[in-house]
Design brief:
The structure is a single chain. The chain has about 140 residues and is of the alpha/beta class. The protein is about 20% helix and about 45% strand. The chain is built from one helix and nine strands. It has a five-stranded mixed β-sheet, with no helix packed on it. β5 (about 75-80) and β6 (about 85-95) form a beta hairpin. The radius of gyration is 20 Å and the shape is elongated.
Length: about 140
């Protein structure tokens, strides 16, 4: 019986140490990323991401700003690029290490910008809105 108690205590200690080490690694690898894009209207911002939160704010400037907060940043591939058609933001979680990762994005855009989201899954919050918003039905 004493061996069983000792074995259980040792196992719990090892599991606690592993969890604590993993959490420390995750919190120390949080990365903030900010990128701004000068735009001409009309333009579209495309966001393709998985398991993330996106906040959209409006402002009068003719530029789009992406602010990303990546927890366990080693678990993400993040690309933000611009061409004549618009701005493309792609955030993909890596297979195994991505399970520890979370992402929070803030997009600050002029009100005239078109927004397209493909989130699997995700949350979009609209802040500081003054005017008309049209949200079409979801599709594949």
């Amino acid at each position: 019986m004493f061996r069983h108690i000792l074995k259980t205590a040792l196992q719990n200690s090892v599991e606690s140490a592993i969890v604590a080490t993993a959490e420390t690694a995750v919190s120390t690898t949080t990365r903030k990323f900010v990128q701004a894009f000068e735009i001409m209207l009309p333009t579209t911002v495309f966001v393709r991401a998985s398991q993330c939160d996106v906040i959209v704010r409006h402002w009068p400037d003719l530029r789009v700003e992406l602010s990303a907060n990546l927890r366990a940043s080693f678990g993400w591939d993040l690309v933000a690029e611009q061409d004549d058609a618009g701005i493309y933001i792609v955030a993909k979680r890596k297979l195994i290490v991505g399970q520890l990762s979370t992402a929070h994005f803030t997009l600050t855009v002029p009100p005239q910008v078109n927004l397209v989201f493909h989130l699997t899954p995700g949350t979009v919050r609209l802040m500081d809105i003054n005017g008309k918003i049209t949200v079409p039905g979801t599709g594949s």
